[in-house]
Amino acid sequence: MSYDYDDDRTLRERIEANPRPALVWLAGLAVLLALELGRVARAIVYIGSLTRGFLGGAAGVPGTVADNVAGSLGGAAGIVGAAITALLLLAVAAVLIKWLFVPVSLVNRLGLDTGEGRDEIIERGLITVALAVVAALVVFTPVGAALEAAIGWLTDALESAGTIQTLTQRDTIPNQGYRTPGGGWEGTFLGLSPAVAWAIRVFVIYAYSFVVAAWLWKGYEVFREHYREADWTPRDDSINRFRTHYWGIFGLAMVFAFVVMAIFAPSLGPVTAEANLYSPYEYEFQYLEGGELQTVTQGDANLASRSQGGSDNVGPLSYDQYDRWHPAGTNQDGKDLFTFLMYGARTSLVIGLTSIGLATAIASALSMITAYYKGLVDVLTVVASDTIISIPAFLLILLLNVLFAEADHPIMDIYNGGFLLALILAGVYWPGLWRSIRGPSLQVASEEWVDAAKSYGQSPGMTMRKHMSPYILTYIMIYASLMLGAVIIVTAALSFLGLGISPPTPEWGRAVSEGRQYISGSSWHISTIPGIMIVFVVTGFNALGDGIRDAIDPESEAGDASADAAATGGGA
Amino acid sequence: MSQEPVETTFTEPGADEDVMVEVRDLRTYYGGDSMFGGPPVKAVDGVSFDIKRGETLGLVGESGCGKTTLGRTLVQLESATGGEVLFDGTDVTELSGKQLKQWRRNSQIVFQDPDSSLNDRMTVGEIVREPLDVHDVGTPRERRQQVRELLDTVGLQREHYYRYPHQFSGGQRQRIGIARTLTLEPDFIVLDEPVSALDVSVQAEVINLLEDLQEEFGLTYLFIAHDLSVVRHICDRVAVMYLGNIMELGPTEELFADPANPYTHSLLSAIPEPDPTSDSDRITLYGTPPNPRHPPSGCPFSTRCPVRIRPDEFAHLDDELWTAINTLREVLRERERADRTTTDRIRELLGRESRFGTIDGIYEEVFGDVTVPPEVEEPLDEAADHVRAGDEASALEVLFEAFGAVCEAEAPDYYTVGDTDRESFCHRHGDEYRSPAEVLDERHG
Ligand code: SF4
Description:
The complex is a heterodimer of chains A (572) and B (445).
Chain A: H1 3-6, H2 11-17, H3 20-35, H4 37-73, H5 75-101, H6 106-110, H7 119-140, H8 142-162, E1 178-179, E2 185-186, H9 194-227, H10 234-243, H11 246-263, H12 265-268, H13 273-278, E3 284-289, E4 292-297, H14 298-304, E5 318-319, E6 325-326, H15 337-373, H16 375-390, H17 393-407, H18 418-445, H19 448-455, H20 460-496, H21 508-515, H22 525-552, H23 558-571
Helix pairs in contact in A: 3-9, 4-5, 4-8, 5-7, 7-8, 10-22, 11-15, 11-22, 15-16, 15-18, 15-20, 16-18, 17-18, 18-20, 19-20, 20-21, 20-22, 21-22
Chain B: E1 19-30, E2 41-52, E3 56-60, H1 67-74, E4 82-87, E5 90-91, H2 97-104, E6 107-110, H3 114-117, H4 124-134, H5 140-153, H6 170-182, E7 188-192, H7 200-217, E8 220-225, H8 228-234, E9 237-242, E10 245-251, H9 252-257, H10 262-269, H11 319-337, H12 342-349, H13 359-367, H14 374-388, H15 392-403, H16 406-409, E11 414-417, E12 422-425, H17 436-444
Parallel strand pairs in B: 3-8, 3-9, 6-7, 7-8
Antiparallel strand pairs in B: 1-2, 1-4, 4-5, 9-10, 10-12, 11-12
Helix pairs in contact in B: 4-5, 4-6, 5-6, 6-7, 11-13, 11-15, 14-15
Iron/sulfur cluster binds next to helix 10 of chain B.
């Protein structure tokens, strides 16, 4: 019957039937991406190199094991050890791949039914074997070389794309230049003053980011209007509630501003961090003095533009004696504070996202497992989390930080201690998150639809993913965004104490700390501006959390919403 | 009335009776294995019965009697502590892994609360399709078609596939739940109070749907309910459950018209009598159902039974006094179980009143306005002494020795009663005692 096919089409078929809105949206997206092609290409290359580094590291493990074992037990044992390690690594990879990419049961497809419940193991075994074959092909045959060549070619292509100038790049709207004897400016955008050029660039960056965000939202609306099969979903109500939640929207705006700061840090500062903060003596610039052009290094110039109270001061929105523009003034070392703050945002965001991301992953996985199985797992988790919670968080963080710093552990080197800090924060904060979502998890685990899933044989893993995680994730989002604020404060507080992230990596808390002796003088800005930014960002994350909570809280408007819904359902 | 005790607690099916499920001495306890100790909750405490292919077996009882646990154990949502559940000869309590998953296709459950049984973040289509996805039935397109047809079958529309449960009324949601249980084409379905959460106006529709589906697909139902009128309408046979035991089981009409077991009597007397000339009074049960963690010894109903067998020497006592004695025993049982805090103990040692009150206070309360003959006085005083010494167990022992009888001493047998093979779990069907109906008339008539 024809209607059988009308009401049963895949997303692709639905788009084919009515391609216009999708094409319009895609065209818009393409334009937006084209404007930033270089940046996108660079990001891909960067992610690619990270992945390669990681894979290379993993591939090196069997070799390391072989060396170690061979050293103590002899060559043959070394080979065996390497083989076992390699197999183990592949098995772990197989579990991941099965989970992510293989939706069907290979065992059923291949008719390998043992009827003994060993399917999972056989399944993973099969994937491991397949992986091993691929790995062997790559390592021992020309396939590897061909693959290498293909990747190399792709990287080259991307790298050359990466050199394309983009809209938001500093060079597009340069603000660094020197005054000409005639009174104009040389080297800046359209000969405008550095201040104006910089302001235009900041505006362009924010405008671009806003347009991208709006366009992505538009994409969702296009999907919702033209291609989604359900004309109503529970999420629609939440979105509508959020739309009228001005406090939440304020939070979203703050968070958006902060994230853009972190992403576009290199373009937002009037000068790059590399030139002004990290290696100031390796970068020179020109300025006009006594009617003649002089050349000076950033470092030397910084020495003369320090803000240390009294007359030694370059305040916000001013030029220093080398005609460098400082939107937020300079710090006590004469470095540009605004640049410092932009890169500091990046540091905070990276640490915040890493630590809260990890903590969220741990907390949500544990909450589902403990709520589903209860019993011993639950007791153990309670004990573990209570132990961690019983120690004051800040003290624990301090302790661990000092411990690793004293031991000079190599992990301290990653991101100037930032990575370690993120790990510690994750370890300290997951129990709190787990506690906060324990109630909702237990509640959802006791819903009858979880029993129903069990009654038709759904596996515990899938039950957790399909029937529990959607509920838990919305709750965890609320607490995660609240906690992100806390993490930013803790990171700043640690830097304030001279711990956590070591210089020169910019961190807001360090600026607050270093500027506090000048707070009452003319150089008040060094502490005050980063302090205010911390307050705004933390408030922003809290407001966003509040907004999400009110948006998903079924109490807020449950009454008439469900009545309407019932009416729609009943009328059909 | 045949009054012979049945040797086994179940009847061997005749050759012409097609038995689908055989339940044998099934027990489901909760919490017994917890590391915090304490006796387990005996939710189902040794039940045996058969379910015939194509029939609807009703399971009734007050809430907390274990009927839902029994239903959930049959579909292996709870694991049995002991006993067997044989589906076509296979003991499903022993199944695990692949075999269990395969078996689950044959037996499904419809839950009581359609608000809780449907994941409201999924569309109706996804909900109904999930069992098919789990068992990898057909291609995705075939699955979607099948789901649409099922929606049709249960009286919804094919277009409802992409709606969310929120958009439906309670009755429609229950239809969605029913559609989901049908996807795997099971033979046996446990209906756990499928209409009790629904508006009265839609209950009948859903019941009719269930009947139609049974007809169409040849389903076998276990219908759990506390609404007896619904049971009378839909069930072929009924099992009456109390405190984890089946008190009486037999063909619906006969059981309703002529209940044999004292518990069935009291349960049925709770239904408003359509016939005003009927002489049967409402039987009020004293007390609340006992805690299933501490079921009474002997007959499970013995703490509340209106026709409990009394020792001959006290046969002449009036009902008021018996009620008082029962209340006293109930109170002492509670005290025996209650946790005493250290402060309570110290207060007792010092002779002060603890929150439990003194035994004299209790006696005053319970026996205040009944006359207590001397032969009753004597064991009561002895019991009081034990309680003063803080030993409720011995006090209860004394009272049991004096006033207890066979009902509290040993569990009854199943007796075949009536003309069809109806079974009832009560000592009073034995030859040496008068029948429950007779005594009921006397004590409550
Ligand atoms: S055995 Fe005794 S207590 Fe139990 S139902 Fe029969 S008469 Fe009542």
